[in-house]
Amino acid sequence: MKKSVIIASLLAATSVITPAKADKLDDIISAGTLRCAVVLDFPPMGSRDDANNPVGFDVDYCNDLAKALGVTAEIVETPFPERIPALMSGRVDVGVASTSDTLERAKTVGMTVPYFAFEMAVTANDKSGIKSFEDMKGKTVGATAGTFEAIALEKSVKEWGTGEFRPYQTQADVFLALSQGQIDATVSTSTVAQSNVKGGKFAGISVVGKAPYDIDYVALFTNRDEYGLINYLNLFINQQVRTGRYAELYEKWVGGEVPSLTVNGVYR
After folding, report:
1. What pLDDT, on a 0 to 100 scale, did the predictor assign at position 110?
2. Does residue 46 belong to any structural domain of this protein?
3. Virtual torsion, Cα 197, 199, 202, 206, nearest 10 deg
4. What is the pTM of this model?
């Protein structure tokens, strides 16, 4: 009996002195700042205006999230290859960075339901003679390393057994190489393709058609074990859609028909 009492007392004492672990959602609210990883060379999702201020769909989305949390947004410029490393190293709290929701990434980070959906487009150098996706066979093509479209395009080149695939660090590098004729064509999201062609910064390129790749659904992400924050982010995305804010931001930064974030037969 005495032994049981002693053990019970020790367990009780341990429970008292062991501090409860606050989750990331509490930490963000307590800190008063939400640090978002955002890619700023990916217009219209993220870029800088003439005054060097971050602007774009993802920037506004981070600001909306911070407002909902009652904290200040901090935009942390993060190139595509550094998005997940920035989270793992503790430099950011959440990724609002057009990140494809792949199963491979989900082994490392916790991903939400989609907050945006991209269709894929082919952009070609006008001198290449490329007028469609099929015309890319045997050509030198490139895309931003680690992105959905880069993985898909490199796979296509291997399946064709001809041509060459070149990875680049940023979207700006891809379109500069395309404009200079270092590559003949690229596959990117339709939003990026139209923005770069219409922007006039890269001469001699045109959007020539769609690429036959799946719609690229992208998610917010945070640490894999932060269930409270992931649940909050999922509800936030839901609220953005049903209040009309998602459509408002899409019209502001992209224009045209708002893509659905649902997958038929999976979730609505």
Report:
1. 98
2. yes
3. 10
4. 0.75
